[in-house]
Specification:
The complex is a heterodimer of chains A (about 130) and B (about 120). By secondary structure, chain A is mostly helical. Chain A contains 4 helices and 1 strand; from the N terminus they run ααααβ. Chain A starts with a helix and ends with a strand. Classes of the chains: A mainly alpha (about 130), B alpha/beta (about 120). The interface of A and B includes residues 42, 49 and 128 of A.
Chain lengths: ~130, ~120
């Protein structure tokens, strides 16, 4: 099970880097806004649209952190089962496979859901009234 | 001036919307939490338009909308969802809950202005 422990450590590292990236992009964005405010400057529409990417980046990375945490949780079940009984471990690895597949599908769905208009060319203005 | 409130757990998203509304003849209040916004509304604040994010911790956009509809002052207040979500089933759910419209991020600033003006019937 050393392999899974190492993989778990790697996933922890990825989460740490993702959280730092969210934090740094947010800080960069807020400093830019403070600079604009302080100097009475404004940006054009194209720039303001691009400035919203930080929010999308943060949501995308947060969703992958959730997916990693879900995978880690299932891995921990397996590690625990493996240490108890070989037969249980054998059943557990099949369950883990199924749950990891579900976690992957959910992560892909959230990637699509949190992309907004970024990858869509079929949506002209993204505003819809009911 | 009409009161427009923005609710989004992202500080940067709120900063972007503020840059859009700065030049508009409206009063703006911003909240990082739907719970805080709803508390103020339950306390008597009556906005003319509410623009809220969908995915927020503690209380999401739909839960916020349902809470708003229970308060007499905002039972019919226009509410726009401003979100990265594009799924049709969510839009349908929002429509059924009484949502006025759906705006996908990243929004086009000129079009968001137009949408606000249209709802508030600004000249």
């Amino acid at each position: 099970m050393q392999f899974l422990q190492t993989l778990n450590g790697l996933l922890e590292h990825v989460k740490t880097v993702e959280r730092e990236t969210i934090s740094l992009t947010k800080e960069a964005q807020l400093r830019m806004v403070r600079f604009l405010d302080k100097n009475g400057l404004s940006v054009d529409d194209e720039t303001l649209e691009a400035m919203q990417y930080q929010d999308i980046i943060a949501q995308q990375l947060s969703a992958t952190i959730e997916a990693i945490e879900s995978a880690q949780e299932h891995m921990q079940y397996f590690i625990h089962a493996f240490s108890q009984d070989d037969a249980i471990a054998s059943q557990s690895i099949e369950k883990m496979q199924g749950k990891l597949t579900v976690a992957l599908e959910r992560a892909k769905e959230r990637h699509r859901a949190f992309s907004g208009k970024v990858h869509r060319e079929d949506d002209e203005d993204g505003i819809e009234f009911f | 001036m009409p009161l427009v409130i923005f609710v989004d757990d992202s500080e940067t998203a709120l900063a972007s919307t503020r840059m859009v509304t700065d030049s508009m003849p409206i009063e703006v209040k911003q909240y990082l939490s739907a719970v805080d916004a709803l508390n103020e509304i339950q306390g008597g604040m009556v906005p003319d338009l509410i623009i809220t994010d969908m995915n927020m911790p503690v209380m999401n956009g739909f839960e916020f909308l349902q809470g708003l509809r229970k308060v007499p002052g905002t039972a019919r207040t226009p509410v726009l969802m401003l979100t990265t979500e594009t799924r049709d089933e969510l839009k349908a759910q929002g429509k059924a809950l009484g949502l006025t419209g759906w705006v996908v991020k990243p929004f086009n600033p000129a079009q968001l202005k137009q949408a606000i003006s249209r709802v508030l019937r600004l000249a």
